[in-house]
Amino acid sequence: MKALFVFTGRTAISILLFGQFFYEVKTMNKKLIALLLAALTAIALFTACASASATDGQPKEEEPTEATPAAETRDDLIIAIESEPPTLHPFDHKAVTAGYMNALTYNCLFKLDLDTLEPIPDLCESWEQLTDSLWRFTIKSGVKFHDGTTMTSDDVLASMEYARTFTTTADYTSFWTAINKIDDRTIEIDTGTPYALTLNNLSSIKIVPKALIDEENDFNRNPIGSGPYRFTDYVLGDKIEFEAFEDYFDSENAAKIRKLIWRVIPEGSSRTIALEAGEIDMIIEPDANDISRMEENDAITVLKQGGTRVNFLTVNTEKAPFDDINVRKAINAAIDKQAVIEVAMGGEGEIALSQTPMVFEGASDKDCDAFDMDLAKQYMARSAHSGETISFSCYVFNDSARRAAEVIQASLLELNMEMSIESLDYATYLTQVFAGDYEMAVSGYTSGTMYNFLYGIFHSDSINAANMARYNDPEIDRLIELGRTQTNDAERGETFTQLTDYINARTIYIPLYQGTVIRAHSAALQGFRVSAAGGMRFEEVYWNEN
User: Fold this and answer.
1) Where are the extended beta strands (E) located within 144-258?
2) Which of 236, 244, 266, 467 is in Cβ range 3.0-4.6 Å of 255 for a Cys bridge?
């Protein structure tokens, strides 16, 4: 007959130890073994009764144990980007990724409200418009740069003049005729003529130490500003690191997360997998093919915002056959833009017929051609290249651009156009396209105002910068300059409508789609916002402690 005993806690330990002893005395006589078993059973029953008594009566006082430490709130944030920024310089670029880094390390007199894109004070404490063209600005007291020096009006003036030396800044540094120091915290800016977008443009001019400008500091390697984060490390092709700036002047909006780590992960699905696995916390531009999958994941938040960015098929109008307006119009009409959106962006985006964002004042898509292959062939028949087989290359720098190019490539075969696709890293892409060393490229442009958008990619002063089409037309320049002097919103809107219709009639760029700004991040991350222009404020975000 077998007996079954269930023992727990100290009783079990006692039995295990006794079992070892029992093994060692197994050679003893049966009578001794029986006595030992009886003793063991008595011990077990006594222990069980004592345990039950303690439980059934007053609660037994627990012996003090070491408390489990509370989970610590994370103090870092890992962000994945598709392309490495070509520079960390505040002015020498037109790169979106570089702009993300600049927003961490620098401040301007004003910044754009993320919700309205209207300028609001940043470094500026007060301002006054003295006349139609004269402005006075006073900066906040005690603003510290990352090198420990205190900001003065000398730094502001030096930064404005320094910014003006770069071709890439022409759209926001061409508005003043004179700038003067009044005292250590006050400057005056004379725009010469009335200019409605003074505050908007001051939202783009980063303020850096005058001493570093004088020393010819390499701001790409040593980006010193006054921003909420300071640069700490850069491992080329891998990561860029920033730490919260302890002496940030705006203490109420100081960074809540101590460390930001930007990781370069070119492949879209790899970024998605890393976010799902918790290896990263945010994707700046998720792969379009993975968005619906991430939306179904409760651990991930997908944020979508209608954008101001227009994505183009850009052609070099200085080179044949793209100097022929009928060739450009043929290409435009031959592209099924909805197919481009579906394949390249997973359906996220709106067909762009106009070359300017439809969300801005003066936008127009009047008489713009939609997808029509028969019309495309008619344009080609009118061109100087009718009946020819045309070969050219198209530059791309990311996955979505390559997918868009593949759709376009198939469409253009019907026009006897043989397009090869060449993938470049982002820095090389920008260098070659801005220099005019290309034929065709998939590109895009975004801005906070219609004026800056028009000046950026259509004004002749922007050739060798964001005027990637390299189109030079005095009438375009004239209308842009007229619009900048008009302080009446309705009048300026009419001018920009006239200009937009003029541009669209010439098909300078081939618009593809107006993009949606999309970000994906851990659902535990709170406080994150993004503007229609793609702007973000990482000093606002924090980890949910629950």
Assistant:
1) 178-183, 186-190, 229-235, 239-244
2) 244
**14 with 127, same domain?**
no
User: What is the residue range of 38's domain?
Assistant: 1-46
Residues 345 and 206 in one domain: no
**Long-range pairs for 430-434: beta carbons < 8 A, 24 or more residues apart:** 430/86, 430/93, 430/94, 430/95, 431/86, 432/395, 433/314, 433/395, 433/468, 434/94, 434/464, 434/465, 434/466, 434/468
- Classify residue 67: in a domain, yes or no: no
82 lies in the same domain as 20: no
pLDDT along the chain (546 residues), means of 10: 37 36 37 38 38 39 40 87 96 96 99 97 99 98 99 99 97 97 99 95 98 98 98 96 98 97 96 98 95 97 96 98 99 98 96 96 95 99 97 97 98 98 96 98 96 97 97 98 93 97 98 97 98 97 88
pTM (two decimals): 0.84
Measured between alpha carbons, how far is residue 173 from residues 133, 193, 314 in Å? 15, 15, 25
- For the chain, the farthest-separated pair of C-alpha atoms sits apart, in whole angstroms, at 118
The answer as to whether 288 is a domain residue is: no
